[in-house]
Amino acid sequence: MSDNIDIRDRDFFSRDSEEVAQELLGDILVKDGFKGRITETEAYYGENDSASHAYNGKTERNEIMFGVPGKVYVYLCYGVYYLLNITTRSKGRPGAVLIRSIKPLEGVNEMKINRGVEEVLELTTGPGKLTKALGVDKRYNGCDVTQKNSKMKVLEGGDPSGVSKGPRVGVDSERKLRFFLSNSDYVS
DNA sequence: AATAGGATTTCCT
DNA sequence: GGAAATCCTATTC
User: Fold this and answer.
1) How far is the CA of A78 from the C1' of B7 (A)?
2) Could you tell me the pTM of the whole model?
3) Which of A31, A93, A133, A175 has the smallest C-beta neighbourhood within 10 Å, fewest atoms?
């Protein structure tokens, strides 16, 4: 029917990480009762990207990056925060897009409870913050976002008015693989 | 305002 | 043994 025409499908994610990262901006991330507009992303690769978990080959943690595109890759960062990624490229060619920030649209009250913070601008502006706000943890690793009855999915959000680029945060990298909405306050 | 340190898993040297 | 795709708190200017 017309209710799932705008779900991002496998083909959308089966492309270069940089393209997917850029086009995810403005899209709607849906997780259970939560909704948020994606405002900031980063592209990761494998063999040529020393900042990527996949750089040194497959491990138990990163194997999802080597598999089918359009799957959730969640991992624990610094032993403390879960970070949310969606896999890209193709099977055997590792890639992912890190979701760094979103703008809360639905479930704001629940996000405040999960974060223990009242300030809406502080709820989801950062990769570790947004997973805590939405209750995303390792159980979501491997979740297929292209299935319409999935626990997590991405809806097409229309063309954003302006996109900016910059170097990725927290890693040594020359290339500008971080993308964010130019006019949004909801960036990290 | 700026900086430094802590929490603590997973992987590499 | 040490660093990492982070964030929060405490301490000091």
Assistant:
1) 8
2) 0.95
3) A175
